[in-house]
Amino acid sequence: MKFRVDRDRLAESVAWAARSLPARPSVPVLAGLLIEADSGGLQLSGFDYETSARASLAAEVADEGRALVSGRLLADICRSLPAHQVEMSLEGQRVTLVCGSSRFTLQTMPVEDYPALPAMPDVSGTVPADSFTGAVSQAVAAAGRDDMLPLLTGVRVEISGEQIIMMATDRFRASLVELTWSPARPDAEGVALVPARVLADTARAVAAGTDLDVALAPLGSGDGLIGFQGSVDDGSRRTTTRLLDGEFPRVQQLFASEPTSTAWVETAPFVEALRRVALVAERNTAVRLSFEADRVVLEAGSGDEAQATEALPAHLRGEPLLIGFNPTYLLDGLGVLSAPWCHLAFTQPTRPVSMAGCAEDQGEPNLAFRYLLMPLRTHG
Question: Which positions ≥6 away from 272 have C-beta within 8 Å?
Answer without folding.
Answer: none
